[in-house]
Amino acid sequence: MPFPRSGRAAQTLSAAAMSALLLASAMKHFRDPAFYRQVVPGYLCRDDQPGRDAAPARPLALLSREEWIALSGLLELAAAVGILVPGTRKVAATGTAVMFTAFLAGHVDALQRAYGPRGTQAQRKVHTVRLPLQAPLIAWAWSLRRPAGGARP
Fold first, then answer.
1. Exposed / middle / buried, residue 23 (Cβ in 10 Å: 0-12, 13-18, 19+)
2. Rounded to two decimals, what is the model's pTM?
3. What is the three-class DSSP state of 45?
4. Exposed, middle or buried: residue 143 (CB in 10 Å: 0-12, 13-18, 19+)?
5. Residue 69 gets which letter from DSSP?
6. CB-based contacts of 103: which residues, under 8 Å, 6+ apart?
7. Within a 10 A sphere around the Cβ of 61, how many other Cβ atoms?
């Protein structure tokens, strides 16, 4: 066995790549929050516009759209750090897979709106591509739960 640590090296490289992706995404949440506006489902958002008639009660509407974007950016930042540290990698990878799975709701909602009466051709293209990208991200994050060397937890 010429490379006894190759499993650990591959796991470390994969974790570093996932961490870099999460860090880049987290930074984009704060630099360009508009990029994420369409994937925050309306049913999660408070209507914070003064002077508007009260919207029907939405029990999941805990934060404004901007607050959800900031919170998800902070969660991605925490995941990026947690995945880098071998001692927290399993918990962080599990949380990241759960987070990406939760993001599916936003991507499905955005895709439905893109194909609705107000949707544009550009929105249809973007959201048709964005939704299926979640599956490999979930699988990748889940794969980081395994200890280096391929042993099953």
1. middle
2. 0.82
3. strand
4. middle
5. H
6. 39, 72, 134
7. 19
Burial 97-134 (b: 16+ CB within 10 A, else e): bebbeebeebbebbbebbeeeebeeebeebbeebbeeb
User: Confidence band (pLDDT; 50, 70, 90) for 42?
Assistant: confident
CA gap 79, 95 in Å, rounded = 7
Task: Answer yes or no: are the C-beta atoms of 78 and 93 closer than 8 Å.
Answer: no
Q: Scanning the structure block, which residue is given the tokens 């200890």?
A: 147
Structure tokens at 23: 């860090």
Dump pLDDT digits (tens) for 105-127. 999 999 999 999 999 999 999 99
At 147, list the tokens: 């200890």
- The label of the residue with tokens 């927290």 reads 88
CB 18 within 8 A of CB 59: no
Measure the CA–CA gap between 119 and 109, rounded to whole angstroms.
12
Single-letter amino acid, residue 68 = W
Residue type at position 29? H
Which residue reads 């607050």 in tokens?
67
